[in-house]
Amino acid sequence: MADPKGFMTTPRQDWPRRPVEERVRDWDEVYVPGALLPIIGRQAGRCMDCGIPFCHDACPLGNLVPEWNDLVSRDDWRAASDRLHATDNFPEFTGRLCPAPCEAGCVLAINQPAVTIKNVECAVADRAWEEGFIRPHPPDRLSGRRVAVVGSGPAGLAAAQQLTRAGHTVVVYERDDRIGGLMRYGIPGFKMEKHHLERRIEQMRAEGTKFRTSTAVGRDLGADELRARHDAVVIATGATARRELPVPGRELAGIHQAMEYLPLANRVCEGDLEISPLSAAGKHVVIVGGGDTGADCLGTAVREGAASVTQLDIHAQPRAGRDEEAEPWPTCPTRIYRLSAAHEEARDLRTAPVADADARLFAASTLRFTGDADGRVRSLHLVEVDARRRPVPGTGRTLPADLVLLALGFSGPDREDGLIDQLGLELEPRGTIARDARFATNVPGVFAAGDAARGQSLIVWAIAEGRAVAAAVDRHLTGRSRLPAPIGPYDRPMTV
């Protein structure tokens, strides 16, 4: 514990964001470059080195938070990087994209602002890259076993890296033209620039992991052939089956799923397209859905130059702080008012004149869409709802809408490519892939990890799943494993 009084003398200070007027003109990350390192040592010194650090339990990876906080406060970046990478394959991803359940479990958060764990994590990872601490770790010897990983999101990449380092020959199959899954085409660059992803992929290539892009397993490569080529298969395709909005007018042109819209904007940033076919430029945009995907659509539409952007959330506006009765410490509060970078931009730029503040209309339910003579959407009709989602009489209103984006979440893995049916995988009632306590499916040698089996979740849980399934596959192939397994397939976040 570098500073025993740090939590009392040093106030919380987050990584500052760039001015709104500046950052909405580009696709770079929203944070001020270089502004984190000067403050992070003192922020790490706020860690109390608790006797029972609940941040460990709140994080499914079991990150050694007090250890690397202490090392950062002492300016020992190499050792901090070693401790961080002992539990997390991709801390620069989680340091940017994870909502930080570890901070919700921070003991200091009982009555003060939590330690900036997420910022410290990001600073350690970035410093490690700058100093050259992060290098490939190829295995000493090969096992002679081959493993296929289907899907290159965080779960698939974590599983592939762990299994490659254990000596197995791993091939990652990705149906898109680039590796990364939703981190590539779903997450906008202003949340995580893609060079972070590229250098991890290059590290994995140097370690021996092989990548096959533009290969939809089940369509371009049959399931039987996949199994014949490999000794084990890991299904990590994510939960990409999109939820629908079955209301009148859904068939009108101009109404799209969020994951139709976001990949095109990302492809513009990649240089594949000059202008997105679904660009929000000059349009009145309404986003249906109040989660992170909706916020990503919001920030993207603002940068594309939308005439207005409004986000609808069917839930009531959350309270500013934790509800100690419903979600007491150290659980991670799910319904709490958060101001993301995109909402901050919408608030300052007044993108939604009908909304009270940051472009969000809470307790709002979509009734129907209406369009013009050409069959294009022009209006969205909504009504306020009560806590049981019943319409409140007299609260109907109409919003102009030239582009409607549905960000309603995902129900399970997509079956369009045919992989699930070809393998004959059993599914849970909610549509996810069924598996046993060893991450194994009903098909011998086939394992499932990540959102495809767990359901829609956080990136930190996806990486934990990837690490855990790697240990299970290694044990299946060799009879034992020294790979860490931070979680089991039935583990869930802490709740009351």
From TrEMBL:
Pathway given for this chain reads:
Amino-acid biosynthesis
Query: What sequence ranges are listed for the domain 4Fe-4S ferredoxin-type?
Result: 38-69
- Top-level taxon of the source organism: Bacteria
InterPro entries registered for this protein in UniProt: 4Fe4S_Fe-S-bd, DPD_II, FAD/NAD-bd_sf, FAD/NAD-binding_dom, Glut_synth_ssu1, Glutamate_Synthase, Helical_ferredxn
Q: Which Gene3D superfamilies match?
A: Alpha-helical ferredoxin, FAD/NAD(P)-binding domain
Keywords of this protein's UniProt record, alphabetized?
A: Amino-acid biosynthesis, Glutamate biosynthesis, Oxidoreductase
| Official protein name in the record | Glutamate synthase subunit beta
